[in-house]
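quick one, 395 residues, struct below
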Amino acid sequence: MTDKINKELHLSESMQNLKEKIRKHKLMRWKRIITAAFLGFMIIFGSYLLLEYRTYENTRVIRTYKGDSSADGSYKMFGDSVLKYTKDGMTLIDQKGKEIWNHSYQIKNPIIEINHEVAAIGDSGGNSIIVIDHEGIKGEIETTQPIEKLSISTNGIVAAVLKDEVSPKVMCYDSTGNILVENKVSAAKDGYPVEIALSNDGTTLIVSYLHVQSGALASNVVYYNFGDAGREEKNNQVAGESYTGQIVPSAFFMDDETSVLVGESGFYIYEGTDKPKLKKEVKFDTEIKSVYHTEKYIGFVLKAKDKKGYEICLYNQKGQRTMSKKFQGDYAHVKMVGETVMMYDGVNCCIYTANGVKRFAGQFQDKILDIVPVGGINTYTVMNINGIQKVRLVK
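---
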């Protein structure tokens, strides 16, 4: 009986030892798994930081899609495609250089305005406007006076400033050329229209008039609403503001409700289209060199306060500064796509991210006509005189 009890006790101890060994083995296995996972995470995170915060100085061409090498051609990104336009016509091509459609015309000085999926190409100083989308030509417009400025809504409504030293006009057309609004301006009384901007739905129009007040230049900015909100208002005017002693040469809509006016010494954010209200005013104590924007950001290139170089900065829709960096170099072109700011002039290029990381500072192989980030790590589509190139930034 005693032997039986001893055997049972020994068996019990053996089972406990076995369970303890199994527990320790599982614990060690989990420790190894956690350690390996942590090391893997650190490697991936470290690689991400290396890629995200590194400044690149060189480029490598991954692929070239040859164009027709016409020296007078210009390129613009149009959605996911590329629009090439010259004095003789335009061609929509995909990012691999394959033609989607083309259209011939005679436009001496083409200017272009793009709003998401539609665009208007006008003849600066001429009388022709062509409205397009990704399917082709939506319509053609003939104006009665020379074209100075263009703006287009997302539904294809076109606003234009028509030149006349005494009686300029601000016109709105549908995409097929029908006149929707005709506003005759008295340059002596109202000032001269120097900037226009249409809301996305085409119902609200911003016009900045330049005039002389008490011997000094001033701007009078007017919001017109051609929907229900402006029907009962005189001349459809739903808001207006005078800016004494400064010019307001730039205006744009960030989204359906938010618009921005940019003056010589700062900018103004307005909310609403029925009865626009000033939401935020931001003043600068230095010169504005360039303005750019997306639906999320308002961007500026400013002269540095110490007069040595420049400052690139971003503001959100609330007028709060979200990024600011000083840089050297003078770039004629600046644009922002998504979270990337690109400045370029000739072959020289500088790229910043929205969080202030200098992604690239260097030269491309050919003169840059347009550039846009695409899928892939540090990969860009670059338009130049030789066609379209897919380029990767390298150390």
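Confidence is low (pLDDT under 50) at residues 45-50.
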